[in-house]
Write a structure and sequence with these properties.
heterodimer, A: mainly alpha, two-stranded antiparallel ribbon, 12 helices, 2 strands, 1% strand, B: alpha+beta, 6-stranded mixed β-sheet, 9 helices, 24% helix
Chain lengths: 276, 344
Amino acid sequence: MRLTALALAYFAAALLALAFLLLPIVAIFAHTTPAHLVDQLSNPVVRDAFIVSLKTSVIAQLLIIVFGTPAAFLLASRRFPGHSFAVTLVELPLVLPPAVAGIGLLAAFGRMGLLGSTFDALGISLPFTQTAVTLAVTYVASPLYIRQAIAAFEATDPNLAAASRTLGASRARTFFRVILPLARGGLIAGLALSFARGLGEFGATIMFAGSLQKVTQTLPLAIYAEFDRNFDATLAMSGVLVLFSIVLLAGLHIGLTWQRSASTRSPSLFGLSSSS
Amino acid sequence: MATLSLHQITVPLRAFQLELSCEVSSTLALVGPSGAGKTTVLRAVAGLVRPTSGCIAVGDDVLFDHRRSVDLPPERRRVGLVFQEYALFPHMTVRQNVEYARKHAADEYLERFRISALASARPGELSGGERQRVALARALAREPEVLLLDEPLSALDAHTKTTVRAELHDLLAGLDIPVLLVTHDFEDAAALADEVSVIVDGSLRQSGTPSELVGRPADSFVASFTGANLLHGVAEPSRNGSTRVHLDDGTVVVTADSATGRVALAVYPWDITLADAPPHDSALNVIHAPIRSIAELGNRVRLSVGPVSAEITAESLARLGLETGQVVYATFKATGTRVVSDHG
């Protein structure tokens, strides 16, 4: 009897926890009718924020892939003086409060900032532009991709790369035909995490780029700006972000599953081993 | 056939330095305990490890020459390397693995290695023996001028090993390129290679045909590595020309070799005869002790009696009806023993 009571207690606790996690999501969609939410999508504020978010997120993720992948491969495959310092540095934006990151970006690239005069001379002004949004998103989201990519590259068996070379493949061919396909799952998982973090970016963006509709006002910024004016619009935007999150969550899990099947070593998600 | 030659190559390893010179014209097995630097030799030939000195060549092709600053990258060396765990690409099919080495070569090599039926399987679905055939097909599809095998039989279970060893022997015999293989198992080396080099802590202890190593082990390490019992004791010449060795446990053993002072005496298990009654024959050495253990090795059986282990056929064991704990007479001839220097 006592065992059954204990099992019941576990069950109740689990149910309560899951309900707590799910309730806010359900509430977003349950607050008004779905038709009303869809109507709000044609609201100019919502539409503009959606476009700004999408554009800056996609460009930021492309930057992260193009620069982060080689960086992660280098950090995963080479040991050099200052290696662990470099890895720690990559993690810095992860622990930095976003508002601080925003101030930092402003202090670096702003008119009065460290590189401000250089940029001024070139006729470039970054703060409060869409480029600033992209930079802020890139800054806060990149560690999530790079960390995961390092883990994915480290999990690929170095003998496979060695075998590829002895079979006549150059370093480049080995990277694209062997290492990249094997690390693919981990890279996708990292990209999903990085995309999710970038979409939700708020603090650094509002500091460095402001919240100008059509220019720098992303979905999270628009949610904040609209929420005492048009609550239904904020619900619609939140709904859009929830749908994105679900897609990214699926991407994360597909990536981790691929990574597990491609590698004999256990991949990790920030030290949380995802293997059984 | 071209010769693979390694001339005074040095590779610093963690605890010691690998220093080696050798010539491979048919099949050479490098044997030694784990961590002796055997795999490093293969990696140096393949170009995956850069020696700090020396020179590596196949015939007239210089792959590495420290003095002339020649160091071809792995992809420009025609070296087939079969890794210990085979290193098949898990995201490619068997056919794609072979085609990775050379386009349009898959059909020919899949057929030659009897793996055509597995062409569209992934490495994860294959057995150990099948994986090895794919790895060999892939390595040879590149038409290398030298083949390197890293512990070719260690990833297999005991049951498959015997079959695969025979297959591999036939394959190697039919190749017209030098083959360098490494193994920690002397029996495997003897079965696969014409010549065996024993390497310990990065340096060569002895080279020769398998029967030369067994017949004249250079030291106690080589003797025990080739499977001999090692009996430690103090030798003193006797009047009739033979040598009496007082073993540490008090037993006295006679050997035909001459020696004085501390020695190790090598006796091979297959040179020891077992009997359940005191034998009357020419053998001078008789150990009267209980059987400590009986282990079957295929159709042979290894029994441990007193300080030695003896190897007899399963048939003999059945005939004598020997059991653990039973006291038996283990005999071996004085001429069946070898005095070896004792620094193992």
